[in-house]
Amino acid sequence: MADSGASALDIGEADANWALIRDKVVEERFGPAVVPVPFLEDAAAYDLLSVLVRKPGRAPRLLGRARPLVPVGALGQLVQQGAEPAGCPREYSETRLVAGAPCRIELQLASVHKKVAFLALRPGQVALRPDLPWLRGLRSLYLLHEVFYGSGLVLAVTRGQAQRALRLPGPCPLAFCCLKFALGPRGLLGPQKPVGPALPARAAWLKLASLEPPAPPQGRSPLPRAPRRGAGGGGGVWTHKGPATPAPSLPPGKWPFASRRAQPAAPSRGDPDRLSMSLPLLD
Predict the structure, then answer these.
(1) β-bridge pairing 172-183 and 189-193
(2) Cβ pair 117, 48 in contact under 8 A
(3) What share of the chain is helix, strand, coil (3-state, %, to 5)?
(4) Where does the signal peptide begin and end (predicted)?
(5) Distance, CA of 139 to CA of 136 (rounded, Å)
């Protein structure tokens, strides 16, 4: 595994190597029905009860692929109103051919645990805030109800004699399970829908850093962009200070879609209990 002489591994390159091994690591450790967190840089955005949506648009789908998914914040931040940890040391290594040269990727976890949420959601009971800029045109969303965390994560990459490593000491989301819900035209959360085969086999993902900020209102200066984390100057291992949770909402000034005005929520129709369901309370 990474030694004290390993130089810093940039978070972007760490994500590129994580993409090579994440499916096998997560399936081996948590099972085939669990979805890997697509980017370590955005791992905190995939915390318990986070919401995922597909990027709206009418662009033609290439080779049958669905529109990419992006986290938009925790459910509690979006609505109008308001397992026990278990030690399990684990190491994983694999050699892949990258740019024509062998690359050894090693992953170490000091411990893993999961959290599961239980709550009752009746169709029409919960309405999203009408000011959310990505709400217009959405017909469904995904809610993370089970999240797997790793503590003491070390991702080391060795090419030739050079080794670099990334360390994330705090609890970091690594994988999750989610439920799909219908979304009404005014942001009303509807009944649960089948997730289908799109997760995880055919899912495409958007990285939060790739999202473009909206045009600033007239007479106001644009919001400053959050600085990107990177390797410090000099040697040593890049270290993320502090836990990766709780999950943040989108970074200041960043929105995944064009800002549009949504209509206010409308009352539900029919018996609100006829399609009620339960999710696995926060531990």
Answers:
(1) antiparallel
(2) yes
(3) 15, 35, 55
(4) none
(5) 9
